[in-house]
Design brief:
Elements (H helix, E strand, L loop, with lengths): L9 H14 L24 H8 L18 E4 L7 H8 L4 E4 L8 H12 L4 E4 L8 H14 L3 E6 L1 H15 L26 E5 L11 E6 L4 E6 L7 E4 L9 H19 L25 H23 L4 H11 L1
Parallel strand pairs: 1-8, 2-3, 2-4, 4-5, 5-8
Antiparallel strand pairs: 6-7
Helix pairs in contact: 3-4, 5-6, 7-8, 7-9, 8-9
């Protein structure tokens, strides 16, 4: 009599996978490297270093980096602080502000707060609300073309990471109107030229807790003709100020809480497991050429570990209960 084959349950498949992973040697560039700053104990595998070099090719003829820089944006965090944005632009001496958002956020209270704040201070502004989710190069060009005739002397981004990234690039290419679009795009898809011009003030008001774009000098978009996601990364792209108001994230649906929270988790894991800054090559010949992302360092480790803890503790709560404002606030802080 033929035996009946019973399909393994999901739990059994998970256990089998864990056993397989546990019995296999690690090829992770982080954990297979005995010299990694997170490895408290020496590796028992004598070939771990060789695998590390295969996982991350290194040119031993080049000098390793010996320094790291912290170049974060100024952050204001607290419920209700969005209403201060008009005073911020007045303090900056702004006369014409370009407000960048999308059609969804334009209807929310966050936009009402910033418009009322600008009106109270008598600061003229124009609104661009055609930002795309996951920006494409052509949508970025459209935004730049909208901003150039208005000639703003400051920018305000109200929305998620796509809105903030679009505002960064509008700022860059209105400040450098004669630049070719690919001049500053990261190599090898672009020319990767450094941004030497001083950009206009940019204040970012995030309405999602995910990308942390309000604190970074990076803008990401799709280069359609190359069928690739790329971006521009330079310290001069960083917003002048990030206004992180937990009230602005309370309108997020549970699905957006979940997806943006997983974004926080991935960013924190990427930072925590990054190659240490003093293993990177080549060392820049001029500090201005030191990249925006320089590898793991003692300060980023503190931030990334706390972000991981907050995400594990608060993301399930934020997704499950839309009225759990403490969890939502902690997720916004973790993203930042």
């Amino acid at each position: 009599m033929a035996s009946i084959r019973v399909a393994p349950s999901r739990a059994q498949r998970a256990i089998n996978l864990l056993r397989t992973v546990n019995s296999a040697s690690s090829s992770c560039p982080c954990h297979s490297n005995p010299q990694h700053h997170h490895n408290a104990h020496p590796s028992l595998n004598p070939f771990a270093g060789n695998r590390r070099r295969l996982a991350t090719p290194m040119d031993t003829s080049q000098q390793k980096e010996y320094a790291f820089e912290m170049a974060a944006s100024s952050i204001r965090f607290g419920p209700g602080c969005t209403k201060e944005v008009g005073m911020d632009f007045k303090n900056l001496g702004a006369k014409k502000v370009m407000v960048v958002t999308d059609e969804t956020v334009r209807k929310l209270d966050a936009m009402k707060q910033v418009q009322e704040g600008l009106d109270r201070e008598g600061i003229p502004f124009e609104v661009f609300s055609k930002t795309r989710v996951e920006p494409k190069d052509y949508s970025i060009r459209e935004a730049i073309d909208f901003a150039k005739p208005y000639a703003p002397d400051a920018f305000l981004a109200v929305g998620g990471g796509s809105v903030i990234d679009t505002a960064k690039l509008m700022n860059l290419y209105t400040t450098c109107p004669d630049a070719d679009f690919l001049d500053f795009v990261n190599a090898p898809l672009g020319k990767g030229q450094p941004i030497t011009a001083k950009l206009k003030p940019l204040i970012a008001v995030p309405t999602t807790a995910g990308t942390g774009s309000e604190t970074t000098g990076t803008a990401i978009f799709d280069l359609v003709d190359k069928k690739a996601k790329t971006g521009i990364a330079h310290r001069n792209l960083k917003p002048t100020l990030g206004i992180c108001d937990p009230i602005n994230t309370r309108t997020m649906p549970s699905a957006v809480h979940a997806s943006s929270g997983l974004d926080v988790l991935c960013h924190a894991l990427e930072s925590w497991t990054a190659i240490p800054y003093n293993e990177r090559t080549p060392r820049p010949d001029n500090p201005i050429n030191r990249p925006a992302y320089q590898g793991a360092n003692p300060i980023s480790d503190i931030f990334s570990l706390q972000a991981l803890r907050s995400t594990v503790q608060c993301l399930p709560r934020a997704v499950k209960d839309p009225d759990d404002w403490e969890a939502q606030s902690n997720m916004l802080l973790a993203a930042t």
